[in-house]
Fold these 3 entries.
Entry 1:
Amino acid sequence: MRTFTHVLYALYAVYWLTGGLTDLVAIILDYIKRGDAAGTPYEDHFTWQIRTFCGGCCLAI
């Protein structure tokens, strides 16, 4: 889970640095793997990433 969480953070960082679709890939993976993270310290990271993505979408509109 730790490595996977780091990969998701990297995908979001690449999006902010270069644009593209890496944020969409990351949010899809967040939702797919969120259940696997339940009960682990990484559960909060997945929740935070999803909320941050959704908040960013609202600000962009």
Entry 2:
Amino acid sequence: MIKLSAGTAAVMGLSGSRMDVFPTTAYLLSGNSCTMKCSFCPQGIGKSETLNRLGRITWPEHSWDEINEGFLAARSRGGKRVCLQSVRHRDGIKTLLKNVSAIKKISSLPLSLSAWVKDHEEAAALIKAGVDRISISLDVVNPDAHKKIKGGSLADRLELLLDCAYRLPGRMSTHLICGLGESEKETIGLINQLVKNDITVALFAFIPLKGTPLAGAKQPDLDSYRRIQAAYYLLREKKIDYSSISFLNERLVSYGLLQSELLKYLENGLAFQTSGCMDCNRPYYNERPGGIIYNYHRPLLPGEIREALDCLASSISSGSRV
């Protein structure tokens, strides 16, 4: 047995849920009762009623036979990748290797993995087993907040991530959550370091979840999130250098571009879509249907692009370069 996200169960025909956009990646979840106690995550609560939740998503359990049949339906509906997400297992990567093997037997799609690995040897073993990309999630950008919210050292996890990226070039990813006590300068500085080391970044907006220690915290301001999304896109696409970005009191105020240049680079809307592994769209993973959309899970409509650009332009410098 293994868990599927509710959206993946729908795209596989294993539930009757209706969706406006299907996931382009099949999301599976390995394990129960994470040994981590992240303050933003339902898995960290340790209660039985939260073990089928990760992020905003519920994860019903299914047999491998059901999933085998479901992969055929998923591919016919546009499925392009598999993502195995995992709690931190008590047996290290033993269960991960078992589940990776099971997935590779029934699917030829590229396989991403988001899991706790302790060193580059474990990462290499998972790649050898058939994983296409591995995410070592940093999540919390500010070192003090990281220690308080996730536990442990941000510097140590970043060192491991960079070491794996050096030894396994083009194979590493990470997750960053905006809205957990970090500044824009901290976030964009770290993004720049990750981009330079060929590490793919999946940006998330923090969302408070019922029952977690951070249930009463606020989500990040949308204009701040848009500034960070744009900075990541411009750095990733080599449209700007980090040195051209200006900050005031740790807040981004300019990309060092003419306004016409900025609008031209961002007019396709790609900066505001879900970031991370190729073909990952995570529908409503950190948004509520009908609420603010931080990460669009589909190409933006013209009006949505204008809205995102207006939000961005109104919050940065109005001089000759923005």
Entry 3:
Amino acid sequence: MSAAVALEEQARLVDVAHTWVKEQAQTLRAQRMKPLSERTRAIWSALRHESNVDITEVVLQPWGSSGRVHFPAAVDGEEAAALAVMSQGEANALALSVFLPKATLADSPFGFLMIDDPVQAMDPAKVDGLARVLHEAARERQVIVLTHDDRLAEAVRRLGLPATMLQVTRDLRSVVSVRETADEARNLLADALTVARDPGMDDTVRRHVLPTLVRGSIESRCHSMYFNRMLRAGVPRVEVDAGWSRAQTTKSKVALALSSGDAGIWKRARPHRNRALDICARGHHQGLSGDPLTAVDDLRDTLADLEAHRG
């Protein structure tokens, strides 16, 4: 009996010790998580633009033999579980907010980050925040982003953030080509010149392809000009997007790009502008009727006028 009592006392002490070890482990875990939690909240704050979900803490909780992360949140000041109230875009932004602090720890052996399509399902208003967050991460790591969505590239250009942007294209027979795409309007101009000069291209095909390239180039430049001016003036991104969506023709998009808003007077002021916008209208539907190389020259001069914003 005395032996059983002695063993019972030992078992009690073991239970006490086990409880103490678990409590200390939880305390140490919380201490290790604190800087990561603070960084996660800071990144979420940059990405949550126009979201009413506020992450109040990041908690690592024991779960079986491992653990799980819990995100206490507040929605319009009321407590809530973050993942239960988030949209898909917000959930993607939160995942990035959790991933970046851990991936950029000082003791990480990796000098780069590779992120696949972080813009997916993200609201337009959050893309500027994403560009700034990735730029901050790129101060100490090489950041590689793969995406089909051009909104991130547009935000990087507009914010003037240093970045190398590459376009990867798979052509016939899976031939892969890579080129820099810092300026989409100029890239389309280069494509138009290639099409105009290609001796092996059927002329009927050439005359239907060129107007599409001319229109795409001019509209790309107008998009940059309009978004830059409106967003810098503090107009909400949703309103800017809506304004662009309402512009159905190239002429109306030129009007948005010009501070005067009068595309008719602007295009008639230079013959090459008139010809270029005519290609975007009739030529886009009927095919190019004039000389292909002249069309490329008109496009080049029109882009230069937009860039200089001459009257």
